[in-house]
């Protein structure tokens, strides 16, 4: 059922506030940001009509089978540690959030937002839902946020040592690039994840924003990066590699954009990941169809400029859509090259299990199309244990300067710290 709206922005927020009380809720929003190929569709899934059962070790196949049975919308996530289903790898570090590696559900109620209208699909009374949303108070972000403190899982010295060890592996010829992440956490965080999402969206609007609830686990995501999108037989991946801060003026912005565009190290990082993604897509796409319509594009966000490349291909006949995801998972921008060795070194040198961080949140349509982000610039919260976590990563190459990489991590953390109104305690 369709409804015309005079104030779409307010209705979207009211619908989310109406639905966030459910144990399962996924809100996807692109914040109308200029982005190559566009950002997320504006969607809100509320409640779980049915949850996809996962066969151990066969998560991708389980989702494919579930979708074939029901031919309807699915919402959910792929966790980074599904790498262990794709390759002979392991994940032995602590995970304070403890979300399932893969989770998908059919929503009880689905809101599909257009330019000035909304389509509501539901097993319940749609007219009643519409009226309830209209009378729901408009959520407003708090002025203070959480106001607590977070601690890095590793010390500054350990991070510097890790970068140097990775570079030794590069010299030995084991890898060319490795994305190393560190966790910032709080063990006794009394956080309102709904308020955090509002604050994060205001301070760091992003084209792949997501609020994702699975029972007592919450993800507030302000991701600028698309992992993969499928439309018909066409698949698109848009890795980000290359970051620089925004300037204090338009003139400084232009200088910084030019600096990023001409940074040999950042360009080399981006090129390596483009090649990796092309190889990933070649496993499921027709020969000769993989193209790079844009490379090294510079796009502005609230606090940083990012270097984004776009890779496209046409899927071979008869390939299940989840196989396209599986053969490219996890995304190269969060692993490194060659991918398998990079992931093995990540497990060796990182101190936290990534879980959903550097995984993907998104949706699958009844036709088998999909769109998934890269879960970065995100806070994850276990409300039962009051465990708050966000992770920050940086790509290490032979040209990396360890201290500069550390400072880049702190720059990337700024948006989350501001949203939380939190301080780092070293």
Question: What does this molecule look like?
Answer:
The chain has 426 residues and is an alpha+beta fold. The chain has helices at residues 8-19, 59-70, 83-86, 126-134, 156-171, 193-203, 250-261, 264-282, 321-327, 339-349, 402-420; strands spanning 2-4, 24-29, 43-51, 74-78, 102-113, 117-122, 149-152, 177-186, 208-214, 217-223, 226-231, 234-238, 240-245, 291-300, 304-314, 336-337, 360-364, 370-373, 378-382, 387-396, 423-424. It has a 21-stranded mixed beta sheet that branches. A hairpin with a 3-residue loop joins strand 5 and strand 6. The longest helix is centred in the middle third of the chain and has 19 residues, at 264-282. Residues 156-412 form the Chorismate-utilising enzyme C-terminal domain. It comes from Flammeovirga kamogawensis.
Helix content: 25-40%
Bulk shape? globular
N-to-C CA distance? 53 Å
By helix and strand content, what is the structural category?
A: alpha+beta
Using the CA coordinates, give the radius of gyration.
21 Å
Domain Chorismate-utilising enzyme C-terminal: 156-412
Protein name: Anthranilate synthase component I family protein
InterPro entries: ADC_synthase, Anth_synth_I-like, Chorismate_C
Organism: Flammeovirga kamogawensis
């Amino acid at each position: 059922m369709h409804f015309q709206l005079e104030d779409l922005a307010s209705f979207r927020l009211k619908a989310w506030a109406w639905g966030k009380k459910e144990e399962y809720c996924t809100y996807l929003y692109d914040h109308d940001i200029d982005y190559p190929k566009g950002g997320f569709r504006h969607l809100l899934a509320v409640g779980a009509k049915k949850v996809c059962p996962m066969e151990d070790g066969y998560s991708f196949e389980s989702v494919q089978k579930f979708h074939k049975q029901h031919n309807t919308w699915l919402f959910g996530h792929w966790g980074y540690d599904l790498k262990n289903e794709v390759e002979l790898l392991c994940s032995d570090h602590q995970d304070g959030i403890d979300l399932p590696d893969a989770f998908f559900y059919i929503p009880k109620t689905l809101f599909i937002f257009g330019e000035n209208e909304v389509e509501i699909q539901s097993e319940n009374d749609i007219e009643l839902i519409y009226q309830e949303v209209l009378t729901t108070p408009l959520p407003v972000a708090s002025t203070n946020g959480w106001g607590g403190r977070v601690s890095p899982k590793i010390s500054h010295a350990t991070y510097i040592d890790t970068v140097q060890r990775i570079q030794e592996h590069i010299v030995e010829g084991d890898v060319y690039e490795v994305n190393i992440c560190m966790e910032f956490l709080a063990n006794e965080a009394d956080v309102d994840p709904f308020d955090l999402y509002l604050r994060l969206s205001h301070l760091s609007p992003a084209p792949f924003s997501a609020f994702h609830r699975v029972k007592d686990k919450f993800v507030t995501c302000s991701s600028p990066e698309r992992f993969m999108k499928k439309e018909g037989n066409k698949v698109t991946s848009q890795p980000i590699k290359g970051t620089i801060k925004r300037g204090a003026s338009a003139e400084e912005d232009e200088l910084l954009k030019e600096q990023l565009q001409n940074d040999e190290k950042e360009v080399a990082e981006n090129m390596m990941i483009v090649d990796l993604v092309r190889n990933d897509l070649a496993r499921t796409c027709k020969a000769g169809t993989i193209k790079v319509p844009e490379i090294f594009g510079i796009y502005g966000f609230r606090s940083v400029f990012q270097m984004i490349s776009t890779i496209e291909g046409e899927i071979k006949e008869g390939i299940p859509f989840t196989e396209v995801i599986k053969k490219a998972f996890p995304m190269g921008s969060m692993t490194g090259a060659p991918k398998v060795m990079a992931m093995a070194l990540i497990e060796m040198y990182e101190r936290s299990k990534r879980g959903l961080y550097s995984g993907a949140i998104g949706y699958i349509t009844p036709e088998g199309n999909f769109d998934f982000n890269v879960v970065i610039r995100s806070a994850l919260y276990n409300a039962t244990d009051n465990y708050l976590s966000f992770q920050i990563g940086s790509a290490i190459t032979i040209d990396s300067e360890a201290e500069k990489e550390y400072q880049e991590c702190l720059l990337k953390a700024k948006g989350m710290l501001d949203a939380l109104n939190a301080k780092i305690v070293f």
